[in-house]
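Supplementary material to the annual report.
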Amino acid sequence: MTVPAEEPGQLPEAALRRLDEGAFTSGLTVPDFAACLQMGLEPVGFVQGYCVMQWQWYGAAAMGGGFGYQWGGVRGYSETFNCPHGMISAEHRSWGQNYEQSWIEDAWASGFTTGLERMIDEATAMGAHGVVGVVDTSAPLSDLGVVEFKVQGTAVRVDDGPRPADGRPWTTYLAGQRLAKLVEAGYAPVAIAAAVSSVGVWANCITQYLTEGAGSMYGGATPGAEIVQTVKAQTAARQLATEQIRRQLGSDSLHGASLTTSRRELGEGDSTVECTLRGNRVRRFKDFDPMPAPRPTVRLL
Amino acid sequence: MTGPEPLTPQGAAGDPRADMRAAADALAGPAGTAAGRMTSDLSIDEELVLHSIGWEPVELVSGTSMHSVPVGVWTWGQGEIGHASAAYARSFAGAVQRLHDACAHAGGHGVVGVHVEWAVERHHVDVTLVGTAVRPVGATGLGTEPVFLSDLSGRDFTLLRSAGWTPLGLAAGASFVYAPRRSMGAAMQQSGQNIELTNYTEAMYAAREAAMERMQTAALGLGGTGVVEVKVTEGPMEFARHAVGFTAYGTVVRLLPGGHRNLGAQMVLPLDDPVVSFDAASLRGR
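Predicted assembly:
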């Protein structure tokens, strides 16, 4: 079998054979399947896209250009935190910086987008209008620094429906009744939206002291104070992810999002903050039907 | 051969096929330029149920804060570890303030479904709050009431409002207390006996009373009548066995002027299986 070629639309031969065989496959549970049929969505096949990336998150390889990083090539957010003390010693962290680790963001986006595009290629080849119940994961594979990106879903066709504007199938993380309710509420699924942002914290002396629970013998760091530099890095990471998503959204909305932030301490106050934002890009095609207030019930089991 | 009679949905509100067709038609056309886009981490159920009482999501908002805990406070001391309790209180208050500001900035009247992530580490306490800012449908600008924060879900918010109550904000309290080591004599005397270790019992009581008191004071400060869905954690700290902690937070609520309204819930006997929702794990046979 051949690896999916760089140019879109060219699928592995085995995939083409499988897609031609006639029977449909689907990752949907029976209730989700029933809900799809009920809303006039006909499953045409289980579609998938994979992309295995060499992945140097941290350390020299990334700093040295693992993903095209160059000093001076840092994109976007950076903020300098000067030490209030002046020259003390060579070991003293006389300045600190928060910086967007754009090479990490780009590597993630590249793996994710490649996987997603390959899945969409499969769906397009089947003549699908959309892909429901998308699952995307990224996990280490086989070796240190190797990450597999996976995007899977069930391609569907809208009964008697038109093809999407540019022939590109729409995608959504939702399936089944949740998707049916979304559509009934007046939202059309447009695409899955996901972004990862990464901010490095190169601690200045104050941040170092506070993160280690120390005060500063030179003043400027009160024990128990807020660790401003790290807080700003976290805030910036969430903002960067949100901005990335906003650029993907255009005039559409983001529904059912999940925003997670993780922080890894690297010692001496240094850390790296990562933020993942995922959700469904949706477009309003009709107003909310006025819905009566729901009736409260108590279940007898 | 004909199959069994098809099931006919009775009293179904809409026509899902027609809705899906309309959605597909919209996607076949050019993207609109309609303003009023929103971002939200609410589920469709929560959004629908909020809409039924006239509220809509505006924007996903967050707030975070992190305060330092001075070195050495966790070991060898007496009574409350004031630095740690203060770091928790300040971090929670800081995150609340930022969430508040983000909500007001987004034009929200309040935040529902706040996820509270917090961690007490040896040298710092971190608090992060993420939620969806909401407002009455179509409202512009700030409301007359102050911005409210609540970790209740959209469903709980709807229930609370329907019953004549309103959430006001998040109240938190924490206390970390040093459990003094027993004297050498006492330790030897008690060795081999099944006996209460009053130093730990007393430290737990002290921590709990102080934390609950702080949460209650915060609730009163917000003008609340009570706190619902309080989440507590208690026990020794992982990194300092002789320190115990008690933390509590919840949503402060107040009765609206109309007084409590009975929801008049109806008894139902469900005939369905538990709902099976789409789950990634089901693809992998787990």
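The domain at 38-254 of chain B is CATH 3.30.110.70 (Translation Initiation Factor IF3).
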